Amino acid sequence: MATGFLEPLLAAASSSAVAGGDWLAGVRERALRQLERDGLPGPRSEAWKYSSLRALGQRRFEPGDAAAATRNVDAGLLELAGVDAPRLVFVNGSFRADLSRLPSLPGVQLRTLSQELQEDPDRLRGFLDRPHADAADAFARLNTVLAADGPVIRVAAGSVVEPLVHLVNVGASASVDLAWQLRGIVEVGEGASLRLVEHHVGEAGHEHLGNSFSQIVLRAGARLDLLQVQDSPESANLVRRTEASLESDAHLELRSIEAGARWMRHDLAVELSGDRSRFVSRGVFALHGRQHADTRLDVRHTARDTSCDIVWRGVADQRSRGIFHGAIVVAAGADGADAQLSNKNLLLSDQAEINTQPVLEIHADEVKAAHGATVGQLDERALFYLRSRGLSRAEARSLLTLAFCRVAFDSITNAALREHIDAMMLERLPIREDETGQEPASP
Question: CA 75, 79, 83: angle at the middle one, nearest 5?
Fold first, then answer.
């Protein structure tokens, strides 16, 4: 499907030189042939049944951005309140040292994929030389074929990294529609800990397609607190994949906030492969206009006494559409697992739509598990109460909706960062009273 979409991208792959040696050339060649054979997933693909690629497939995106190294970027896009931290900035998939801050941190390596491919590509083999067996992974294949840059973060065993590390992925406006790739790798050593903010922003203008793929490995007893903030303009189309593997006693706490982009797909795949490993996730998407957001979360328990605690919220207004697929699989032998999944959603318009699919598969013994999903509307009694306190109906709607969304970020301990996200969400959330997006005229 969508060969017109893939044609210029695959042509660029065939003509580009590959750093990294013969093994990486082989990996990319294999992924390229799979893409040429299978294309992008079509309407019969179960994983993509609610997110048609037809419109995207009819567009032509130019591969990469030759001017990324010198392109002007609004400095305000790079800032997060309360985050004065080491920063790696990537513009249209290319590292920008002039916009980054890379202080020396004990026990931490802050590098880029392009550096590693030039200097020590074999260190990346365990991350890049991996199969993408089914059509649902078509964008992962495309990333493997074309990605030449991205963050590579390694934390040494036993290191406790105090400052936040800030990753900024900027989709900068260009004179043509661009498609860019980014590949990120995070490895936290045994008994080490890291706090990371992954920030997706952009400039309005020509449409762009950002295809990013993050791979995370937490060694025994490691901890990663990861905050993902997606606040791109509506000229952005984003495909993101986050994979994480947790060894024994490792802990991943992931917060995900999806507020921007016209069309967005985010696949999260977490494997609890070590005994007593734990995954905690809080997430939200807030949509308006004709935005489309599709989040697919797959968690696999493959070791004993593992646990996951997932709470996800969705809000859709006007003609927007949200999809949440949350699947938990407790494999045979993963005895003693504790798996909890809750997905609640708000529809703020008769023309908005949210599809939710909680899935729970248990193949082990002595398992505690629960899952549930709801789709509803704002409580009219709560609206009435707030209006009786002097708020307009629009203000009351926004405050109630914001309170509903705060489950994703209310536990952030950095007060300035939490308030920044609060303001961002309030700006994104609807204060409209009719389907045109306008406040009613005063009598």
Answer: 150
Alpha-carbon gap, residue 230 to 389, rounded angstroms: 34
Q: How many residues in the chain?
A: 443
Alpha carbons 387 and 29: distance in angstroms, whole number: 62
Contact 263, 290 (CB under 8 A): no
Is the pTM of the predicted complex or chain greater than 0.90? yes
180 neighbors 65 (Cβ within 8 angstroms): yes
Q: Please spell the DSSP secondary structure of 382-420, one letter per residue.
A: HHHHHHHTT--HHHHHHHHHHHHHGGGTTT-S-HHHHHH
Average confidence score pLDDT of the chain = 90
In terms of Cβ atoms closer than 10 Å to its own Cβ (0-12, 13-18, 19+), residue 139 is buried
Segment (H or E) for 213: strand 208-218
- Position 42 scores a pLDDT of 83
What is the C-alpha to C-alpha distance for residues 181 and 57, in angstroms, rounded to an integer? 17
Query: How far is C-alpha 13 from the chain's CA centre?
Result: 25
pLDDT digits (tens, 9 = 90+) for 176-193: 888 999 999 999 999 999
Q: pLDDT tens digit string along 146-181?
A: 999 999 999 999 999 999 999 999 998 888 888 999
Residue 227's CB: how many other CB atoms inside 10 A? 25
Query: Residue 83: what residue type?
Result: V
Residue 195 exposure: Cα atoms within 13 Å on the Cβ side: 11
Q: Are 295 and 283 in contact (CB under 8 A)?
A: yes
- Token pair, residue 123, equals 């260190």
- Domains in the chain: boundaries: 3-274
What residue type is 296 in one-letter code?
A: R
Paired residues of 342 in beta bridges? 311, 372
Left (φ > 0), alpha (ψ -120 to 50) or beta: where does 254 sit? beta
- Summarised one tens digit per residue, pLDDT across range 225-260 is 999 999 999 889 999 999 999 999 999 999 999 999
pLDDT, one tens digit per residue, over 2-49 is 467 888 888 877 666 667 778 898 999 898 888 888 888 887 888 898
Residue among 148, 158, 88 at smallest CA distance from 117: 148
What single DSSP character describes residue 176? Answer: S
| DSSP code for 424 | H
CA nearest 275: which of 339, 362, 333?
333
pLDDT at 443 over 50: no
